[in-house]
Every structure is written in structure tokens, then in C-alpha cells.
Automatic annotation (TrEMBL):
Taxonomic classification: Bacteria, Bacillati, Bacillota, Bacilli, Bacillales
Gene3D superfamilies xrefs: Dihydrodipicolinate Reductase, domain 2, NAD(P)-binding Rossmann-like Domain
UniProt keyword Oxidoreductase, yes or no: yes
Organism: Priestia endophytica DSM 13796
InterPro entries xref list: Gfo/Idh/MocA-like_OxRdtase_N, Gfo/Idh/MocA_domain, GFO_IDH_MocA-like_dom, NAD(P)-bd_dom_sf
Name of this chain's protein: Predicted dehydrogenase
Keywords: Oxidoreductase
Family statement drawn from the similarity comment of this UniProt entry: Belongs to the Gfo/Idh/MocA family.
Domain of life per record: Bacteria
Length: 331
């Protein structure tokens, strides 16, 4: 019998229903054995995904010694609290992004996880799609020359705004936390560098509660520059582009290729007139679940993966500070 990690799910969040529970079901080394919620839908969800145990509270689930790891898709403002409580109960943790809202929370989360010898990963699922590794290979090959700039756009139109937690500041709402965190992470991840100076601006909703869109310019440690825009008040856009001295790479399905059954596309143009399209297939949520589950089974995870949460939220904080001060901010 294949060894697998026994998972518990905290809440019936839509992301869990739409993406993660199907991924757990299809993963080769993971099995969901419990779900916790006071929501009336929990029995239906447990039946649909063949989850044997239902708990009426998150604490009850965390007390279950038959659970190795938990997935936390709660509102952003609750992530830090429940990551620490899960860690204190000896559970490994996969937490939805953004796992924390500031650097202080990030440092507390990582310290608690290390102290209790549990693994923690922020669920930036996009990075597990093989298209991004292929992009890195093309960059290393020198095909597009010396890289000058990376541009990232990620947006969607938020329906039923009055009823959505993304519109509530106290729950960690807003476009920067919701989709801007992906833009920041992808720049850092793909270019393998850190921003050292940024300038950001925002547009708020009509009530002035949360940012509906954010635009940011970054100067990076390796001399490159990057620009991103993130929004939840416009048509869906989902891409990044990297431009070098000899050509460019465009990735038009960068973050949500599951909308195309996992098929992504890489477009390469070079200054000598060459053009090609590469198709890359992958199911990033399944790959994410299998990666973290294998880390649990092996008893090890890259420390850089844990520390990455701190580095990403530092940039988010700098964006908010730049917006407030209306000036460039050093990181």
C-alpha cells in the first residue's frame, strides 16, 4: 500500500471545495481524513469527497492524533492564529496565501513552526506548474539575452462585492493581499532575486475600505526592474512577460492554467525573427499537494521555502508604506 499523509481541512472555504479537495483526492501520497466546520454544507462536502470524520470546531480537529497535516484556507486575518495553533499541536501546515499580513506575523509563524518541529508552506500553487521551470531553463540558456524587465498582470472582476470577505479590511481584504502577493512572489521566484526599492500606488473602492487595484514598480538586487499590476475590479488577466536584450518570453496562463485543463503556453520571440510556442501540461494543485506531502513523508522541507513567507510579506508591507508615503521605499 502506498504510504500517504493524513490531512485535515479547516473550514469549507470555496478554494478548498473547488481546487484543493479535488487535488487531495487525486494525489498519490495524500488522503483527507477529517474536515472541521460549523457550516451546514460540511456533511455534503464530506460525503462528496469521501471524508470520514467531521468536527464541529477547528480545535477538535487539531486534537486528532490521526491527522498528520492540515490545510488552512480561512480568511487572511485568521491564518497566523491557526497556523500557530496547528503547529503547537504538532501538525504540518499548508496555508493559503497570504499566510500572514505583516512581517511580525511571519516571524512568529516561522518561529512557532520551528519550535514545534513542523513543516510549513504558504500555498503559492502556481509555482508547481512545470511551465515556470521551463521559463527558468530558457532564461539560463541565454536565448533572450540579458534580462532587463519582468512585467506581471493578474486581475479579475469581483462579483457580489457587498458579500465578499475580500472587501473587508479587518479580514485582510484588498487586491494586494489577494492577487498582488502572486505577482510579487512570481517576480522573486522566476528572476531569483529580491526587490530593494519599490514605488506603489492604489485605487480604493467607493467606500475607501480596501484597495481594488495596485500598480508597483520595483528595482531588483540584480539590476533588473519589474512592474506589476494586480486588481479585482476588471476583466481577468493572467500573465507575465520577461524582456531581455535578444528577445522576450510571454506566459499568458501564468497563474490559473487549471481553467484550461492544466495546459499552459510559453511564447518566445527573439530579435533575429524567431518565434515559437511551447505547450506545457501540469496540474499545479495536485503537484503542490504531492510536493508538501512528500516533504512530510521524508521528514524535511527546504528552509528557504519557509523563510520565503517572510521575504514576500516584506515587499507587501513596503507597497503599503509606499502608497501611504507616496514615495519610493527601500526594502
Amino acid at each position: 500500500m502506498t504510504k500517504h499523509v493524513r490531512w485535515g481541512i479547516l473550514s469549507t472555504a470555496q478554494i478548498a471545495q473547488d481546487e484543493l479537495l479535488p487535488a487531495f483526492r487525486d494525489a498519490t501520497n495524500a488522503k483527507v481524513v477529517a474536515i472541521a466546520s460549523t457550516n451546514d454544507k460540511v456533511k455534503h462536502i464530506a460525503s462528496k469527497f469521501d471524508i470520514p470524520k467531521i468536527y464541529g470546531s477547528y480545535d477538535e480537529l487539531l486534537e486528532d492524533s490521526g491527522i498528520d497535516a492540515v490545510y488552512i484556507p480561512l480568511p487572511n486575518s485568521l491564518h497566523s492564529q491557526w497556523v500557530k495553533r496547528a503547529a503547537e499541536k504538532g501538525k504540518h501546515i499548508l496555508c493559503e496565501k497570504p499566510a500572514v499580513l505583516n512581517t511580525r506575523e511571519a516571524e512568529e509563524v516561522i518561529e512557532t513552526c520551528k519550535k514545534n518541529n513542523v513543516m510549513f508552506m504558504e500555498a503559492f500553487m502556481y509555482q508547481f506548474h512545470p511551465q515556470h521551470q521551463r521559463v527558468k531553463e530558457i532564461l539560463i540558456s541565454g536565448e533572450i539575452g540579458e534580462v532587463n524587465i519582468m512585467k506581471v498582470s493578474l486581475s479579475f472582476y469581483l462579483e457580489n462585492q457587498n458579500e465578499n470577505i475580500r472587501m473587508r479590511q479587518e479580514l485582510g481584504g484588498g487586491s494586494l493581499y489577494d492577487v498582488g502577493c502572486y505577482c510579487i512572489h512570481s517576480i522573486r521566484n522566476i528572476l531569483n532575486t529580491e526587490p530593494n526599492r519599490i514605488f506603489a500606488s492604489q485605487q480604493k473602492d467607493v467606500k475607501g475600505q480596501v484597495d481594488m487595484s495596485v500598480v508597483c514598480f520595483m528595482e531588483l538586487d540584480n539590476g533588473m526592474t519589474a512592474v506589476f499590476d494586480a486588481a479585482m475590479d476588471r476583466a481577468q488577466i493572467d500573465y507575465y512577460e520577461i524582456i531581455g536584450t535578444k528577445g522576450s518570453i510571454r506566459v499568458p496562463k501564468a497563474f490559473i492554467p487549471q481553467m484550461y485543463n492544466g495546459e499552459a503556453q510559453i511564447i518566445v520571440n527573439t530579435t533575429d525573427g524567431a518565434y515559437r510556442e511551447e505547450k506545457v501540461l501540469g496540474h499545479q494543485y495536485i503537484l503542490e499537494v504531492e510536493y508538501f506531502s512528500q516533504c512530510v513523508l521524508n521528514g524535511e522541507i527546504s528552509r528557504s521555502m519557509m523563510e520565503d513567507t517572510i521575504e514576500n510579506v516584506k515587499v507587501i508591507e513596503a507597497c503599503f508604506k509606499s502608497i501611504e508615503k507616496e514615495t519610493f521605499i527601500d526594502i
